[in-house]
Amino acid sequence: MYNEIPNYGLRAYALFFSKHGLQEEFTQSDLDWIVGQSMKKKIFSLLLNNGWIKKASTVSYKCINPEMIFKGLLDFKVPQIIKKSKKPYAFTGLSAVEIWSDYSYIQRGREKSPYYIKILKKDLRYWKNFFSSYRVPNYIKAGSTIGEFVILDPVEKLNFDEKDEIKVETLKETEKIAKANSFYAYPYNYIKKKYEK
Fold first, then answer.
1. Considering the entire predicted model, what is its pTM?
2. Within a 13 Å sphere around the CA of 145, how many CA atoms are in the beta-carbon half?
3. CA distance 27 to 131
4. pLDDT tens-digit series, residues 60-69
5. Do residues 117 and 151 touch, judged by C-beta distance below 8 A?
6. pLDDT tens, 48-61?
């Protein structure tokens, strides 16, 4: 998984890549005369943990191909990282339609990938910190950016079902959402046909 990194990390990666390319190994000593010991450790930890460099041996590293990194920054991460959360949630709105229709309807592309998620109001700070720790932009009720982002909908009470290990708005509520807009006729019909008793 590739993540966005702060400017100091980007500059360090640019230095390593311009100096060593993809094949040549380098060590932490490359930064000896540039930054202090604690900053050097911070930079290498940042680059390694966010997938921008990899270990080549116990003391040396190699750059990851920048093309892979930049494409990877737009990968869909939310469905996987949300499974690590410790608080209740429910994909809602068009995200719920996506999930219940087995992705026969998809609302996202690499350029714009919103996820609509209901959370408990009392857990709002947790969720803001949770998504920020994975560098996923998140907004309350509305917002937009390039790539993947989350729209949080804080509520007092949360009802959900579980589908494919993901908590999602109940099927009944999702059917109402899909039925309310003729643009979603195909996923609505898919859901009705699949789950009719």
1. 0.75
2. 12
3. 32
4. 999 999 999 9
5. yes
6. 999 999 999 999 99
Quick check: 24 pLDDT over 70?
A: yes
**In sequence order, what are the beta bridge partners of 120?**
155
3-state helix, strand, coil in the chain (%, to 5): 45, 20, 35
Q: Are β-strands 147-155 and 112-120 bridged in parallel, bridged antiparallel, or unpaired?
A: parallel
List C-alpha distances in Å: 62 to 10, 51, 70.
15, 11, 17
Alpha helix stretches (DSSP H) within the chain: 7-20, 37-49, 66-72, 78-81, 93-100, 124-133, 171-179, 185-195
Question: Residue 83, class by beta-carbon neighbours within 10 Å (0-12 exposed, 13-18 middle, 19+ buried)?
Answer: exposed
